[in-house]
Design a protein that fits this description.
The complex is a heterodimer of chains A (about 500) and B (about 475).
Chain A lengths: L14 H21 L14 H8 L10 H14 L8 E2 L8 H13 L10 H18 L5 E5 L2 H16 L3 H4 L7 E5 L6 H8 L7 E3 L10 H13 L3 E8 L11 H11 L2 E5 L24 E4 L12 E5 L5 H6 L32 H36 L3 E3 L7 E6 L13 H19 L3 E7 L2 E8 L7 H15 L3
Chain B lengths: L2 H4 L7 H4 L10 H24 L14 H8 L10 H14 L8 E2 L8 H13 L10 H18 L6 E5 L2 H16 L3 H4 L7 E4 L7 H8 L12 E8 L11 H11 L2 E5 L24 E5 L11 E5 L5 H6 L33 H35 L3 E3 L7 E6 L11 H8 L1 H12 L3 E7 L2 E8 L7 H15 L3
Parallel strand pairs in B: 1-10, 3-4, 4-5, 5-6
Antiparallel strand pairs in B: 2-7, 6-7, 8-9, 9-11, 10-11
The chains are: A alpha/beta (about 500), B alpha/beta (about 475).
Chain lengths: ~500, ~475
Amino acid sequence: MEATTGDLTDPLINHADGQLFLHEAFKIIVEEVLCKGTDVKEKVCEWREPEELARLLDLELREKGEPQENLLQRVRDVAKYSIKTSHPRFFNQQFAGVDYHSLAGRFLSEALNTNLFTYEVAPVFVLMEAEVLRGLRELVGWTEGDGLFCPGGSTSNMYAMNLARYRLYPEVKSRGLWSLPQLTIFTSPESHYSVKKGAAFMGFGMDNVILVKVDDGGRMIPEDLDEKIELSKSQGAAPFLVSCTSGTTVQGAFDPLHRIADICDKHKLWLHVDAAWGGSVLFSKKHRHLMKGVHRANSVAWNPHKMLVAGLQCSVLLLKDTTDLLKKCHCANATYLFQQDKFYDVNLDVGDKSVQCSRKVDCLKLWVMWKAVGSAGLEQRVDKAFLHARYVVDQMKKREGFQLLREPEFVNVCFWFIPPSLRGKEKNADYQNRLAKVAPVIKERMMKQGTMMVGYQPLGDRVNFFRITILSPLVSQKDMDFFLDEIERLGNDL
Amino acid sequence: MNLYVINFKGQTTVEELMNPEKGSPGAGEDMEAAESFIQQAMEIILQEAVKKATNVKEKVCEWRSPEQLKELLDLELKDTGESESKILQCCRDTIRYSVKTGHPRFFNQLFAGMEPHSMVASFITEAIKTSLYTYEMAPVFTLIEDALLKTMMKLIGWEEGGDGLFNPGGSMSNMYAVNLARYRYCPDFKEIGIYASPRLVILTSQEGHYSLAKAAALLGFGTKNVYVGAVPFFVNATAGTTVLGAFDPIDEIADICEKHNLWLHVDACWGGGALVSKKHRHLLKGIQRVNSVAWNLHKMLMATLQCSAFLVRDKSCLLQRCHCAGASYLFQQDKFYDVSYDTGDKSVQCSRKPDAFKFWLVWKAVGTRELEYRVDRALALARYLAQEIKKREGFRLVIEPEFANVCFWYIPPSLRNLPESLELWKKLHTVAPAVKERMMKSGSMMIGYQKHGDKPNFFRMVVISPQVSRQDLDFVLDEIHSLGKDL
């Protein structure tokens, strides 16, 4: 169909139809995803093999469109076969539950469809992001500073690496790494893999990420950090960054920040704290001690979409710096976006602080939630998660067959389930091998039955164990009891 | 859900919260309260952010200075929470003072309009709230992303298929291309870094997007090693430049790249949309020969932000090998399903949003033919605008548009008799900013302007939305004249 000038008179899209579709689809979303998805009587997941699911979904994209009835059925299908991550028995990742205020904020962000690069296209959000960052920095202990929202904690960690590199060698921005000494990064083996991915991506090389020993709780050993830095220097390399973790992914360990900060001060290294998982303890008067010393860091990564239930994605990078380092490091001064002759204060055009061009509005979801429940409400959320973890640990100690890896410091509870057939047989030669096979089978069973979702993984020389992270505000004691019973039910015959 | 957490104002002790009788999940009245809040919020969104926001009789923006806006919004975050009605009012205020990017007279960026199917898909994505790293966490979205990428590859012309994923923005896609090219050149760089290697250089045009410069800085090449240098290994061609909407001649560039064994990446973030149009796809002739393509569906094809695809013509798992870290807590090899469905290690991100779904649903809803018609219509409108500009006094095109960007100067009557000189350029340079300020303060429309090389500020009209009609374009020219004639 050739578009002639005559066709240009009328708008093409019928907005009334579109709005009706939105209305109908929203009803389905509420019913299928929000109501059923949080109902303990419903399944957590409706498992299908990939080939079967592909057939059910009818994925093919065709020349012609479809009537609204078909599309609404598709909406139902997508909801049906997706994982109910807000379900009270979803414990698989470091996010869970749902906060309805943040959800409203997320719907609103999608509807307003704008980018956070200039004040002119996102006036409300430029101001809002600044206010949210200020509030989070305050909790870290900084009255001033900088920062921004990133598309995930991995990006926040990369930014920190880039800033540290730029601060030490500003010429790297224009000249590259070619002329520099070999830069080395220090982190623990329990840190998030984005430190390694970032190192590869940014040209440092994964080999230049030096792993520091951890104690048996998974915490970085400061003395070893000091030694490894000295060793690296003696080899002619240039240590420039320590990336330590507040709340490691698997065990939930907190690196000792004060002592690490001492070493960073001594050697003049940038201290980055990956608090993507653990950062939210800063809301809790009772538990913030876990991050004692964080104010001495140069940068902090923190993902409110994890423990604060803000919804994916909501990740911040916070900086102590007040010299505009973020902007100097990243700017490219594109004249089509960042004109200097605008009629408002162009410092409000924050886009050049970012490595992204278009950048989603992720601050709204956190802002609405924070406004609705207050810092006190968020504190309660964090404290409750700790109580749940404590309850589960106490129960496990009372039940046969549950063996904790160690006493948890945070809300990650790592444990093996030892089926009756293996109990007492620790000395057998094939014990470890057989134990390693238990978690994958229980996982398969729980997913195929859709009763709950819990993650498992090996760690170092420890074979597959479960990791339950309890953070959803929807969860109650009954769900904890169910979880323990269900593991037993699914694994007793192994 | 437990609304006592939402309304919690520090009155219940934590011990009471642990009481199994109180606030069990799914308890009838709690779910009702939550549902009621969401219904009310959605009603506001539909009325104010969708219906009104796309109505030509309403303003495009409600301009306030930053100081005024701060006062109006009451941004402060406090210890205690606020009432439900206050929160709903916050939502209303946020909408009121936000720019209506779906308005028929919003032409400021390379995205515009409102696609209801994409918006529905966005809402679903937010409600479902999952991450695309493993099949177990996102079975539906994993398969949908794959299906959409395959369809896009067919349009590009890769008969044997390839690989790819969706990224948080086109800048990231461009960075992936640079990184893959570097990895192909020397896989060891992943481990040892690039310190000891010869200085590698990225070639792009002056009109290329600034993300190439940012990529060079972030990835360790250095911005000086973009354009001129020692060992070229990567060429970036642009299909649809940001300002002028120009298309680099891909076939010819591919000849050169093949000769010198360079990785050829096409930044088709903006121009990729032309591929759905039989009439206009010639603009990207040769694209089937390239190594990688970045294509943002949230631009011309109107998916909601973000919807950025990165595609690579490779079947050797290059993307996976280049980026993987094999984290054992996510990518266990002993899962009970085929773990090649876990896409997460192809990415440099960990959690990743299911952005492909936002366009898959659109395509299902309207079909390829309708997508084609939309693109053809947008380009026909751009041609119409160019013709009108030529007919009107005081308007002058910068260049004949090749795509949907129509760049032009408005020359107020007071300047029309001045000779072509530096003095004219200097005065002309101040016109667009002044007109822009006036249009934003009146809220009648939004159009971008910029300088370019040694050319003084000119307007860049970008025509995307099928909701836009001839009348809107006539209005744009009338309005610019009305706002600027006294300058």
